[in-house]
Input
Amino acid sequence: MKTMFLTAENRKQLPPLYSQEKVATEDHMVYVKFFHPYGAGTWLAMEFDGKDQFFGAVKIHDDWELGYFSLAELSSLKAKINGRTMPFQAIERDRYFKPMPYSKAKAA
Output
């Protein structure tokens, strides 16, 4: 079943960029989790500019990195299985994810 990549509820929950600057990084709230079900990659969205840019954490293999990532780029990636490009998105939103502090989200 295909789910909406970013829902209206997700957009309402996500605070604007720089709104958590004065909060310790481990305490930043994570509101949306994206993942790559066919390979490596997890994206934790903490803030959103309302259009395209997220601030959050990304883990491709071993380590988490804080930075910015693009909704357009995530939603445009196509899945590749056994070298073949498939007609569906490579990245999915974890529809069961509940907002939690970064310290807990990166361990989940």
In short: Residues 8-16+23-105 form one domain. The mean pLDDT is 89. The two ends are 23 Å apart (CA to CA).
